[in-house]
Amino acid sequence: MKRFARLIQKLEQSNKTNDKITALVDYFNDADDKDKIWVIALFTGKKPKRPIKSALLKYWAIDITQTPEWLFSESYANVGDLSETIALLLPPAENTSDLQLHKWIEELHDLEGKDDETKKEFILNAWNHLETQERFIFNKLISGNFRIGVSNKMLVNALAKQSSLDSAQIMHSIMGKWNPYEITFHELINGVHVNTDNSWPYPFCLAYALEQEPEKLGDISEWQAEWKWDGIRGQIVKRNGELFIWSRGEELVTEQFPELYFLIDVLPDGVVIDGEILAVQDKQVLSFSTLQQRLNRKTINKKQLEDAPIGFFVYDILEFEAKDFREHPLSERRAVLEQLIGNLEESAVILSPVINCKSWEELAELRQTSRSINSEGIMLKKLSSHYHSGRKRGDWWKWKINPYTVDAVMIYAQKGSGRRANFFTDYTFAVRDGENLVTIAKAYSGLTDKEIKEVNSFVTKNAIEKFGPVRTVKPELVFEIAFEGIAESKRHKAGLALRFPRILRWRKDKKADEINTLEDLRQLLESTF
Amino acid sequence: MALIEFTKRGIYCKQGDFYVDPWWPVDYAVTTHGHSDHVRFGNKYYLCHTLTKPIIKRRISEDLNVETLNYGESIVRNGVDISFYPAGHIIGSAQVRLEYKGEVCVISGDYKTEDDGISDVFEPVKCHSFVSESTFGLPVYKWQKQDAVFNGIKNWVSDNIDAQKTSVLIAYSLGKAQRLIKNLAGNVPIYVHNSIANLNEVIINAGVNLPDTIRIMPETTKDELQKGIVIVPPAMRDSRWIKNLSHPVTGICSGWMQVRAHRRWQSADAGFALSDHADWPGLMDAITATGAEKVYVTHGFTAAFSRFLNDSGIESEEVMTKFGQEDDEENKVDLAEQNDNK
C-alpha cells in the first residue's frame, strides 16, 4: 500500500503528462506483480469486491471520532469526497503496516458474508494502521472510483514504455474482459486472455476538431469527406458466431438494439465494423432527441421500436477475415467495406456515404446544409491513413458546423462537487418571456478558473435566496450559451430543452435586458422540424 | 455593558473609543498584525507590536503615526487597559487584550498554536470573552507537525534538483515566506523575489534572526535557480517569468492544500498543507484555554464552528467581518504584493 500511495502522490504532484508517465513507469518497474494488476484494474474503472457499504464506513467514522452527523456533512461538503473526508477526520494512526495493495484487497474480499461486527473490527483496525493518504486509498477501494487524471491512453503508454510491447496491443488487452483476481501481470499485458474472448473491441480512432482552414490540409483528392453524424459511436464485432455491439464508453450495448441482431446471420465471422448508432427511418437520419428515447433502457416496448427505429451508419472496418485490418490505408478499407455492406439492401445497416467534391469551396458550401439531414458537419479522413488507436492529430478531422447560440442570464448558482466543491460552478440560465424570466438550461462548463472565481464572488455577494445548496442570484450576468439542438419538452417550464448546452463566453458587454426571448427559441424549434 | 461591538467600520471598543483592525479609516486603530486584510491605510493613529511597525510602514506608508507595545506591555486609553500577547500567526502578530473594570476581552486576530520557529509562540490569555478566527474551523483540518511537512518539501526539492527541474514555492511575502526560509535553510541556497527580499530586509533590521537568502536579480542565471529553492509571492504564480525558468515545477504552501479538491483546483504542481492559521484541534485548545464565557467567531467556517461551540456548552456567536473570507485573503495579499512591486 505504501508504494501505491507514493505513486498517487507522485501523480498528484505534477500537471504534466510526461511526469505522470515517468511515475507510472517507475511504479511498474518496482512494484509487486499482483499489485500492478490491481493498479491497472483500478485506473481503468474495474472495482474489487466490495463487501461493505459506504454508509457503514461513514457511520463507523462518525462513531469513533464522536463527530456530530451535521458536522460530518459540513466537512464532506468542503472536501467533496467521502473517502477523503473520512481519511482526514480520523485521528492519526497508532501503527503502520507494510501489507501490499493486493493483500488488502484479498482481505477485503474475505470479509464477504461476514457479520457487521467482524467487518467493523477489520476496518477500524485497518484505519489504525494506515497514514492519511493510505487510508484515503483504502476507503476508495471500498467505496469509490480512482479519478486521478490518468487516462487509459496514459496508462497504456507507460506500460508500453516499461514492457517494450506495442501500445495498441496493450490497449487491446486491458480493454478486454479479464479478472484481476485471476490473471497474472505477464498474461495481462501480453493479452493472453483476449485471444479466447470473442468480444474484444478495438480502441476507437478519434478525430480532433479542425481549427484551421481546410485548404491547409492540402489537395482535397487526398481526403475522404463524410457527414458527421450526431448519434452514438459504435463498434460491431462478429466472431465465432457471436455478435457484440460496443459503445464509445467501452460498454456492451448489444441488448439495446434488436434492429441490428440480424447482422449475426449476415456478417461473416472475424469482422469488426465502426460506425454510428442513429435513429433512422427510410434510410434518413432522425434527430438526436428521437434516438434519445432508445438510450439506456432496460426493456424496449413496441411503441418505442416504432417511434424511434434504430439504424447503423457504417464508416470503417477494423477486422476482416479474422485479421487486424487497421494498418491498411483507408482507401482499401473503404473498398472492402463497400463490398461487405453495400449489398445489404433494405436493411437498417447503411454505408455512410462519401461526399464527392472537387474543391474545398464546394465542400464548404455543402457543409452549410448539414443540419437539413441531421448531420452536425463533416468528417475529413486522409485516404492513406491507418486506423489509429485513440486521438492522433493529422489524419482525421471533424469539421463541425457552428453551434446554435443564445444569450441568457444567470439566475441560480450551485456549488460543484469534487474539485469544484468550494465554488459556485453550476449555473442555471434563463431567457425573457414577456416580463418574466424562464429557465432554459443548466451548464457547468466553459469558464476559465479565473472567471469561475469572479462569478463565485458575484454569487456570494448577490445571493437573494438560499434553497439548500442553491442560490438565487440577481439576474445580472449574461452568458452566451452554445447548444447542439433544440427539442420540445413537457418536463421543462419553457416547453423546450436544449441539447448539450455549455457556456461559450461571458458577455460582460451585455445587460440583462439585452438577452434573447423564449419566442426566439420557439422560432428556432419550429425551423428544425 | 460589553467591551466590544461589531460595527460597519470594524471591532469597536466604546469605553476606550478605538477600533481593532478596522476596515474603514478611524482615529485610533489597534492592529493585530501586518496582513492587508487587518491593517489598512488612512487611520490617524496605529497601535501595534514593535515588530509590526516597520512592516506596516514599509507596506502602507512611511508617514503613518504608529505607537508600539511589546508582548506583555500595556497602555491605558480612556480607562481601558490594552496589552499584547503573542498570536503565533506571523512575526509581530499579537492578540489584543482589553480590560475595563475587571472585564477582560481578547481579540485574537489570526493565530496558530504550533511553534513555527520564527514567530513568538501563541500564548492563551484568560478572558471573559474571546474573538476567534475560524479559517480552518472544520475537523478535517488537522495539521501534520511542521517537521513532517518540511521534510516533504525538502524531498520534493531534492527530487526536483536531481531531475534538473527548478523548484518554485509560492508563499505570501509576509509570514509564510519567512517561515519557509527559516525552516528550509541548509544545504540548498534560497532565492527570493524582490518583494520578499524587501520585507526580509525590514524584518532583519528590526532585529529578527533570519537565515541568508539571495535576492533574485536580472543577472541571476536559470542554472543557479535550478539548483536552489525559489520563493515568490502569489501574484507571480502564473507569470511568464516562472514559465521561462528551466523546467519549473511549482508548489503551494497553504492549509487549503490539505484537501485534494483544493490542490487540484490550483494551477500548481504540488500542494503542501502548511498553514499560519490554527487547525481544528488548535482552535479548540486555544478557546478552552482562555476559559471564555463567550466566543465570537469571525472569518472562515463561522457557522459550523460556532454551532459546534454552542453544542459543546461554550456560548458562541458568528460575526461577519471583512477579514479574509475563505480564500479571499490570498487575493487581498496579492494587492499588497502589487503595491510592493510598484
UniProtKB/TrEMBL annotation, chain A:
Catalysis performed (reactions): ATP + (deoxyribonucleotide)n-3'-hydroxyl + 5'-phospho-(deoxyribonucleotide)m = (deoxyribonucleotide)n+m + AMP + diphosphate
PROSITE patterns: DNA_LIGASE_A1, DNA_LIGASE_A3
Superkingdom to which the source organism belongs: Bacteria
EC number: 6.5.1.1
GO terms assigned for molecular function: ATP binding; DNA binding; DNA ligase (ATP) activity; metal ion binding
Lipid biosynthesis found in the keyword field: no
SUPFAM superfamilies on file: ATP-dependent DNA ligase DNA-binding domain (SSF117018), DNA ligase/mRNA capping enzyme, catalytic domain (SSF56091), Nucleic acid-binding proteins (SSF50249)
Domain ATP-dependent DNA ligase family profile: 303-433
Pfam families tied to this protein: DNA_ligase_A_C, DNA_ligase_A_M, DNA_ligase_A_N
UniProt enzyme class: ligase
GO BP terms in the entry: cell division; DNA recombination; DNA repair; DNA replication
Keywords: ATP-binding, Cell cycle, Cell division, DNA damage, DNA recombination, DNA repair, DNA replication, Ligase, Magnesium, Metal-binding, Nucleotide-binding
NCBIfam families assigned: DNA_lig_bact, PRK09247.1
Name of the protein this chain belongs to: DNA ligase (ATP)
UniProtKB/TrEMBL annotation, chain B:
InterPro entries the record matches: MBL, RibonucZ/Hydroxyglut_hydro, Xnuc_lig_assoc
UniProt-annotated stretches for the region Disordered: 323-342
SUPFAM superfamilies hit by this protein: Metallo-hydrolase/oxidoreductase
Keyword Ligase recorded: yes
Domain of life of the source: Bacteria
Sorted UniProt keywords: Exonuclease, Hydrolase, Ligase, Nuclease
Biased composition (Basic and acidic residues): 332-342
Molecular function via GO: exonuclease activity; ligase activity; RNA endonuclease activity
Enzyme Commission code(s) on record: 3.1.-.-
Protein name as annotated: Ligase-associated DNA damage response exonuclease
